[in-house]
Amino acid sequence: MPAIRSSADLRNNYNEISTFCHNYPEPVFITKNGKGDLAVMSIEAYEELTGRFDLYSQLKEGLDDIASGNTRPFSEAMEDIRSHRQK
Fold first, then answer.
1. Per residue in 47-64, pLDDT tens?
2. Whether pTM exceeds 0.85
3. Tens-place pLDDT, residues 6-23
4. Which residues contact 27 (CB under 8 A, 6 or more apart)?
5. What is the bridge-based pairing of β-strands 28-32 and 35-40?
6. Which residues neighbour 48 within 8 Å (Cβ) at sequence distance 6 or greater?
7. What angle do CA 20, 42, 27 make, to 5 degrees?
8. Quick check: 44 and 19 in contact, CB under 8 A?
9. b/e map of 19-34 (b: 16 or more CB within 10 Å)?
């Protein structure tokens, strides 16, 4: 179940919310006037989340290359790399 706190809680209990965010890798949802307003998480959780987005983007790019035939055999690629290193 997601942690939901009010904007007043964020203002008055910042340290408690910060501790929760560092102990659990999930966001705390902050409401304003009873409606969702913000999602707060630790920097570590944020970096892990954005790292996943980057990985998924790279995987999709690779799968798109495969689907469009924009690939070549591994042995050919390695031969090309080796020939450039020797120059």
1. 999 999 999 999 999 999
2. no
3. 999 999 999 999 999 999
4. 2, 3, 21, 39, 40, 41, 45
5. antiparallel
6. 25
7. 65
8. no
9. ebbeeeeebbebbeee
